[in-house]
């Protein structure tokens, strides 16, 4: 099946995954993580993309972002990716590509899934058995969102700000979200939406995205009456 085109909408949150080519490591030393975040910060500022959450794993990266323009995310990822590859190749005396082709992304229904994606991203090191709690992993936004560390790269989402009237209250409420692991159903929904370029949201949100973009936001149902009006309507989109 041909790849679906990415969906680009200004002021709509997106979950982004960038993987190393052949799942190979993208980070070896602490300096590598710092360099990536520095390049990302510069690119996000240049192309007006707010970054709400991130995690840098050994061979891939997750981001939760909101662009001010339709092309902001793609331009940011291209700019920081190019700079980091130059840095990485020079540092380790290598050449060629580092990233696995296109980054993957999905639009996120903020009202229903935003904080779930925050958790999904920052719990990655726990699911990978690298740490026992998100607080133990140094290269994620949990350090700021939950523990108050200053990370200039980050811009809190408005829904994060609604967790409390003060930073201390917001951080406390945010930490409470991390009691226990995420349900497998939530993990599966997020992974499918991001890997297959579907929209992560409820039916109303998906319908709004389809109306604005003219592109299907979720896979067609299997089976059923293929001659029904609903089926024909979906096929026409």
Automatic annotation (TrEMBL):
Q: Where is the composition biased (Basic and acidic residues)?
A: 223-237
Q: Which InterPro entries match?
A: Transposase_17, Transposase_17_sf
Q: Which Pfam families match?
A: Y1_Tnp
Ranges where the record places region Disordered: 211-237
Q: Where is the Transposase IS200-like domain?
A: 9-124
Do you know which SMART domains this protein is assigned to? Y1_Tnp (SM01321)
Name by which UniProt lists this protein: Transposase
Protein species of origin = Bowmanella denitrificans
